[in-house]
Every structure is written in structure tokens, then in C-alpha cells.
């Protein structure tokens, strides 16, 4: 019996791999992508990068301006994430099976999370760009909406996983809804929630660069400006400052996670 199951499992694995190979081949054929040609262009691309993406002394004079835009982007990401997190806590409480008030609010909270989470931040940027124009409000709202859906979904799962037994114990003592949320749900779910918020701050700082290119704000706009003016040395400097900022924030987030989790 076990041998039959193993043979069936191996057969399924082989069929699955064959399907992947066929789909990959068809995709390459339809898009006229040649893997060997792609590999052949890598040395030339690396040579171009080595020749053009050099940071010169003249480029460093632009560093104060770049840092100003980078800080603007970081603060915008933090503000959008924080505001989305506050609203997501209420939506998470409404959407959780443990703390929902009624089915209508639960379905509504999950629907809002699903809509805002399943539409990429780039798509939100383009949608909001039409309504609000090219300004910082559009960039803020794009990050806010994308974060709202992700955090609401994450908070619903955190509350469901963390608070079941404690909620039942407080319900048995006759505690009110707000007492249950305040004494059991939030304290148990808070470390996991903070971890998700830190994760979204990191993600939003990365996404803010692309959002900024579309909405004309922050470090993304600066990157786009230098790129379109063919100032590749400045483009390299912008890229390096973004990478360093992300690494620093990632390091800080990891340290905070070790303390709270």
C-alpha cells in the first residue's frame, strides 16, 4: 500500500514537472524570449553599469537634496503605515471570528481587506493619480490603501490565533466586549501586530520609490528626474542611499522584533 502511494506520488511529481517545463517553453516561445541570448547580454550590461553608474565628487554635491527626499519618503511611509494600522485594528476586531460584533461588519471588514490587498500598490497609484493628480497626497493614499488591506488581513489572523482561550475565560466571568478586547485580545495579539507593522514600514519604504516615480513625490521622483536627464551617476547615488536606508531600517526592525516577540 505504501509502495503504491509512493509510486503514485512520484508519478504526480513527474507529471507536474513536465507541465511546468511545457508551460515554460510555451511562454518563452510566445514572448520570443531566448534564454541564451539573455545570458549573452549580461557581460555587456555589467560593463555599461561599471562605466556609467560611478559616483563622482560632483555627484556627491547632490547628496543633501537626495537625503532630504529620502527622509521625506521614509516619513511618508511611516505615516501611511501608522494610520493604516490604527484603522486596521478596528477592522481586524470586526473581521475576526473571535471578536466580531455581527456577520455584516465581519463580511464588510474582510471585503475591504480583500479589495485593498488584492490590488497592487502600483495599480492604486495609477487609480488615485487620475483622481488626486500628481502630488504627495496621491503617494500617501496609495501606500495607505495597500497597507490597510494587508494589515487588516494579518490582524484578523493574529487575533484568531492568539485570543481564543483567553476570550472564552473572560466571557465565562461575564466580562463586557470592551473588557475582553482590552484585557485579552489586544495584549495577546499586540506583539504579532507590531511585527506586521514593522514589516509593512520596510515594505512601504521599498514601494514608495516606485510610487514616487508614478506620483511625482519623494525619492522616486528624484530617481526619475535624474534618470530622464541621463544623469546616471546621480541615479547610482540615489539607488545606494535607498539600499542603505532599507538595510538600516531592516536591522532596526529585526532588533525590535527580538525584543517584542
Automatic annotation (TrEMBL):
The chain crosses the membrane at residues 74-95, 229-249. It is a multi-pass membrane protein. Keywords: Cell membrane, Membrane, Transmembrane, Transmembrane helix, Transport. Residues 70-253 form the ABC transmembrane type-1 domain. Its main location: membrane. GO terms for molecular function: ABC-type phosphonate transporter activity. Pfam families: BPD_transp_1 (PF00528). InterPro entries: MetI-like, MetI-like_sf, PhnE/PtxC. One of its GO terms (cellular component) is plasma membrane. It is found in: Cell membrane. Belongs to the binding-protein-dependent transport system permease family. NCBIfam families: PhnE (TIGR01097). This is Phosphonate ABC transporter, permease protein PhnE. It comes from Oceanobacillus zhaokaii.
Amino acid at each position: 500500500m505504501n509502495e503504491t502511494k509512493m509510486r503514485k506520488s512520484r508519478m504526480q511529481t513527474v507529471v507536474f514537472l513536465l507541465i511546468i517545463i511545457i508551460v515554460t517553453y510555451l511562454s518563452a516561445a510566445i514572448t520570443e524570449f531566448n534564454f541564451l541570448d539573455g545570458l549573452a547580454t549580461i557581460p555587456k550590461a555589467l560593463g555599461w553599469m561599471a562605466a556609467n553608474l560611478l559616483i563622482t565628487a560632483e555627484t556627491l554635491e547632490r547628496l543633501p537634496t537626495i537625503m532630504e527626499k529620502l527622509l521625506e519618503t521614509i516619513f511618508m511611509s511611516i505615516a501611511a503605515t501608522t494610520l493604516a494600522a490604527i484603522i486596521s485594528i478596528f477592522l481586524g476586531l470586526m473581521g475576526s471570528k473571535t471578536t466580531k460584533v455581527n456577520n455584516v461588519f465581519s463580511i464588510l471588514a474582510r471585503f475591504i481587506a480583500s479589495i485593498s490587498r488584492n490590488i497592487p500598490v502600483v495599480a492604486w497609484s495609477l487609480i488615485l493619480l487620475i483622481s488626486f493628480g500628481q502630488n504627495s497626497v496621491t503617494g500617501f493614499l496609495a501606500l495607505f490603501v495597500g497597507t490597510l488591506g494587508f494589515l487588516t488581513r494579518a490582524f484578523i489572523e493574529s487575533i484568531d490565533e492568539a485570543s481564543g482561550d483567553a476570550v472564552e475565560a473572560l466571557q465565562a466571568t461575564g466580562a463586557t466586549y470592551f473588557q475582553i478586547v482590552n484585557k485579552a485580545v489586544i495584549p495577546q495579539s499586540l506583539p504579532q501586530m507590531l511585527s506586521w507593522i514593522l514589516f509593512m514600514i520596510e515594505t512601504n519604504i521599498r514601494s514608495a520609490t516606485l510610487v514616487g516615480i508614478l506620483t511625482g513625490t519623494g525619492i522616486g521622483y528624484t530617481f526619475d528626474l535624474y534618470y530622464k536627464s541621463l544623469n546616471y551617476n546621480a541615479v547610482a547615488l540615489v539607488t545606494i542611499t535607498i539600499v542603505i536606508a532599507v538595510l538600516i531600517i531592516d536591522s532596526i526592525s529585526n532588533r525590535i522584533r527580538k525584543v517584542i516577540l
